[in-house]
Structure formats: structure tokens, C-alpha cells
Write a structure and sequence with these properties.
It is a single chain. It contains eleven helices and eight strands. The chain is α/β, with parallel strands linked by helices. The chain has two domains: about 5-180, Rossmann fold; about 190-275, N-(1-d-carboxylethyl)-l-norvaline Dehydrogenase, domain 2 (Orthogonal Bundle), CATH 1.10.1040.10. Strands 3-2-1-4-5-6-7-8 form an eight-stranded mixed sheet, with helices on both faces. α1 (about 15-25) packs across α2 (about 35-55) and α7 (about 190-205) crosses α10. The radius of gyration is 19 Å and the shape is globular.
Length: about 290
């Protein structure tokens, strides 16, 4: 299977980063969102990031302009009829993603690969709402997509080998290092990383200082960022949703969300994006 034109659905932070990465890799991209305002906001952000790469000497003005020229925005999914691959990057909600996949299934031509940027939801469940689950696969990019090298590729129960190998080759072509995951909650990274952050929050609940936890993991395990700082960066609401998905998916008490995590999300103190989580942050997202 050959991929030359790619659709991206969703103009949030992940969708924006994914669209940028693919356009920079010389693919034509049709970028779709129900909100034209959100698309324009995303496009402005991409222009800013590309300009920063030029200023740092990591790209050229010609390459930046070429990437922007390969991006086409739209608010109607019918424009995706001619693409070879669609990557869905809407919020991590199974019912929402199923709705999008049903719509895509009605729009794209036969043989089009439908990929989800889900970080841990069932790829098989997404495939079940389409006429061709053999062409549905998980393609989990990490935030920020232009900087993070990893791509978790997750075939569903019915995904064909051809689609899997095509996706692995595509990952390489856009400069990503890919790993094969099994279709279980959390895949690889979140299955390991999120429970670690949850356990760190248990330590805070027991009276350990967040700074001490972060220092211990940076100095003792050589982590570049402590788990509490990382939790604030990811967003405690996102962390809680992932833990709930693991807990429900495996029906195993070891994935029970920490009560303190639940309380902080209920209070709206979910991390850097709200200015307050385990630490406090200014408008630039810097810790204060």
C-alpha cells in the first residue's frame, strides 16, 4: 500500500503537531476540524514553530514555506475522499472516536487506512464500527509531536498485516521510531508511565513532598523530569482518565486512581494548563 496524501482529523495540540510533522515530511495533508477558528489557531501555531526552527538553524525558510503549502484546512470531512491514510486526533473519548470513525468510513474510498491517535483505547472497538476493520490501526504520537520521536503502532484484532507494515513504514518516512503494541489498555508507555505517576501521587498523599519525589527520581533513576512535574505537565485530568481506563480495562485494583488525584481533578487544579496542580505556574507555564 502506498501513502501519498494524508488526512488529519482534529485541530487541537496533538492534531496540530501531527499535521506539522507529516507536512514537513513532504506529504500533502488535508487537515479537518469542525471549527475553522481552531484550525486557524493551529495553523498560526505551526507557522510560529516552523519559524522558530528556521531561527535556530534547524530548517530553512524554503522548507518551512513548502511545509505550509502542503497543508490544506477544511471543516467538512467529505474532502478526505481522496486520501490514502486518515489519522484521527480528537479528545480521548471512545464514543466520540467511534462517531468519527463511522463518519470517516462513509467518506473515504475503499482501502484507505484509518488510524487513531488514541493513547490507550481499544483499536478493535474503533474498527468494529467500520465496514473494514482490517484497515483500522492505532498510531499514538507523543506530545509535542514535532519533538517526540516515538510512535506506538497498535493493530487491532482484525487489522491486516499489510496495513500494519504500511503504518510502520510510514512512521519511518516521517522520522519516527515505531514500536509494535498489543491492543490492551495503555499500550506500552502509558501502561508503565501513568501508574508510576499515580504511585508518586500516593506518596504525596502520605506526606512526602513533591519536590523530594521529583528529586529522588531524577537523581536516583536518571529521569529527565520527576513524576510529579510530569503529572502537572500532562494534566491531572488526562492522567486520571488514563488510570480509569486501565482500571476498567483490566479490572485490576493495582490500577486504582489515587484518591488525591481524584480530589485535585474535582477541584479543577489539574496542572500547568490551569496554573495550579502540585506546583503553581505563571501565564507562560513556568513554575513559580
Amino acid at each position: 500500500m502506498k501513502i501519498s496524501k494524508v488526512g488529519v482529523v482534529g485541530a487541537g495540540l496533538m492534531g496540530s503537531g501531527i499535521a506539522q510533522v507529516i507536512a514537513e515530511a513532504d506529504y500533502d495533508v488535508i487537515w479537518v476540524d469542525i471549527s475553522n477558528e481552531q484550525l486557524q489557531k493551529g495553523l498560526t501555531n505551526i507557522k510560529r514553530l516552523l519559524q522558530r526552527k528556521v531561527e535556530k538553524g534547524k530548517s530553512t525558510t524554503v522548507k518551512a514555506e513548502a511545509a505550509l503549502n502542503r497543508l490544506t484546512t477544511a471543516t467538512d470531512m467529505s474532502v478526505l475522499v481522496g486520501v490514502d491514510l486518515v489519522i484521527e486526533a480528537v479528545p480521548e473519548n471512545l464514543e466520540l472516536k467511534k462517531k468519527i470513525f463511522k463518519q470517516l468510513d462513509e467518506v473515504v474510498r475503499p482501502g484507505t487506512i484509518l488510524a487513531s491517535n488514541t493513547s490507550g483505547l481499544s483499536v478493535s472497538a474503533l474498527g468494529s464500527v467500520t465496514r473494514c476493520p482490517e484497515h483500522v490501526i492505532g498510531a499514538h504520537f507523543f506530545y509535542p509531536a514535532p519533538m517526540m520521536e516515538l510512535l506506538e503502532v497498535t493493530p487491532g484484532l482484525l487489522t491486516s498485516n499489510e496495513v500494519f507494515h504500511t503504518m510502520m513504514a510510514f512512521a519511518k518516512s516521517i522520522g519516527k521510531i515505531s514500536v509494535e503494541c498489543k491492543d490492551y489498555p495503555g499500550f506500552i508507555v502509558n501502561r508503565i508511565l501513568v501508574p508510576m505517576m499515580n504511585e508518586a501521587i500516593y506518596l504525596v498523599m502520605e506526606g512526602v513532598k513533591p519536590d523530594d519525589i521529583d528529586t529522588a527520581m531524577k537523581m536516583g533513576a536518571n529521569h529527565p523530569m520527576g513524576p510529579i512535574t510530569l503529572a502537572d505537565f500532562v494534566g491531572l485530568d488526562t492522567l486520571l482518565a488514563t488510570m480509569q481506563g486501565l482500571y476498567e480495562g483490566f479490572n485490576d485494583s493495582k490500577y486504582r486512581p489515587c484518591p488525591l488525584l481524584v480530589k485535585m481533578v474535582e477541584a479543577g487544579t489539574v496542572g500547568r494548563k490551569t496554573g495550579r496542580g502540585f506546583y503553581c505556574y505563571n501565564e507562560k507555564g513556568e513554575r513559580v
